[in-house]
Amino acid sequence: MVKGMRVIEKLAVFGPRSIEDLYKETGISRSSIYRIMRTLEDLGYVIRKRNEAEDIWKLDLKFLSLSSHILSRVDLKTEIEDILIKLADDTKEIVQLGVLYEGKVLILDVIQRYKSLVSVAQVGELLDINICAAGLVLGAYLKEEELDLLLKKIELPKHTKFTITDPNRLKAELKKVKMRGYSFDNQYYAIAHRCIGAPVFDYTGRVIAAINISGHMKTISDEKIEELAEIVKQRAKEASIKMGYDEKK
Questions:
Q1: Residues 6+ apart with CB under 8 A from 86
Q2: Is the dihedral of CA 213, 153, 240, 8 positive or negative?
Q3: Which domains are seen in the chain, by residue range?
Q4: How far is it, in rounded angstroms, from Cα 101 to Cα 79?
Q5: Per DSSP, which regions of the chain are E strands?
Q6: Tell me: the pLDDT tens digits for 57-87?
Q7: Structure confidence at residue 5 (pLDDT)
């Protein structure tokens, strides 16, 4: 959360700034600052004014409701974006980064480097946990009492005939997800749409996000599920290590 907080602090204290201004004032690399600002812009927390010479960024009033929870996720995106790109290149599928926010999955990043037969939720969108691989992962690693409380508070909408809408069935599926270390959305979100997701852990061993690939069942075929799942798990593990996770502890 440190980088995001430092950038936000400068905007709050000094007002509208350029990337160059923020670079000089924080010492954070220009590329990192740009990624932080783009994420905050996508989420509606900063506004960019385009000048002839350079873009100027300022805080939106919506920022007043911004929590440290979201700021920490902004830094997460900045730190692991290179791994998300590698996963896209590994699988030739769309890659998404999701976090749990107010009982739903907030899409924090989307990497699409190759043509796809499917469309996916974009940055800033909120998805119900039962319709996406990221949601299944994030639900699977909640404590039992946390999951029970969440399921009492949220709805489980039906998007397709395959969507799991029964809380008991969903809990059974989440146990399988945790046991094998990855989730598989088999047309829960849309017909012919499949996703495979895996958890990202922080230095405390807590799951802070989920990485998933999204594609058509022609490319995420039955024969390729296990192979693709191992790739997603490996990249998620690399992301976890980058966030300070030590699986030996």
A1: 235
A2: positive
A3: 2-63 (1.10.10.10), 69-242 (3.30.450.40)
A4: 19
A5: 17-18, 46-50, 55-59, 94-101, 104-111, 126-127, 183-186, 193-201, 207-216
A6: 888 766 655 555 555 566 688 889 999 999 9
A7: 74
Residue with tokens 């300070």: 244
Q: Residue 97: CA atoms inside 13 Å, Cβ hemisphere, count?
A: 28
C-alpha dihedral over 24, 25, 26, 31, to 10 degrees? -40
SS3 letters across 180-211: HCCEEEECCCCCCEEEEEEEEECCCCCEEEEE
Rounded Cα–Cα distance for residues 23 and 28 (Å): 6
Low-confidence ranges of the chain (pLDDT < 70): 1-2, 13, 61-75, 249
Is the pTM for the entire model greater than 0.70? yes
Q: Could you identify the residue written with the tokens 């047309």?
A: 187
For residue 248, give both structure tokens: 């030996």
